[in-house]
Amino acid sequence: MEFQRSQMLYDNGYYKWHAHDDRDNPYYRGGTDARQLNRTEGYEVLYFINHFVPKHRFRQDLPTYRKVEQIIRYHVPSNIHKRELIAKWILDNFSRL
């Protein structure tokens, strides 16, 4: 199962869905977009979740995808921006949230 935009909890104006004209790349081919996650850009969050969940062998179902989305929005400290650090934080804290 792949998480869809229509299934996201916060797709009610919270997320932006268009890449910026300043070379923001929605497909993460390189540069800072490959290393950092902008939590208000829906396409980045959706991409991250769809790759994080299966990579770390979490159950690929709607409750799991939504839990990861909630963790990203409300629990991961705001000073953590790098994708690998966000992934590590989620892995370290998933079971207690």
Shape: globular
The SSE order reads HHHH
How would you state the average pLDDT, rounded?
88
Ends apart, CA distance between termini: 23 Å
Strand residue percentage: under 5%
User: Count of DSSP helices?
Assistant: 4
Structural class: mainly alpha
Q: What's the β-strand tally?
A: 0
Contiguous runs where pLDDT drops below 50 for at least 5 residues:
none
Regarding quaternary structure, what we see is single chain
Biggest β-sheet description: none
Q: What is the CA-atom radius of gyration, in angstroms?
A: 13 Å
Into which percent range does the helicity of residues fall?
40-55%
Keywords:
globular; mainly alpha; 44% helix; 4 helices; 97 residues
SSE order and pairing:
Layout: H1 32-35, H2 42-55, H3 62-75, H4 83-93
What does this structure look like?
The protein is an all-alpha fold. Helices cover 44% and strands 0% of the residues. It is built from 4 helices and no strands. Helix 2 packs across helix 3. It is globular and about 30 Å long.
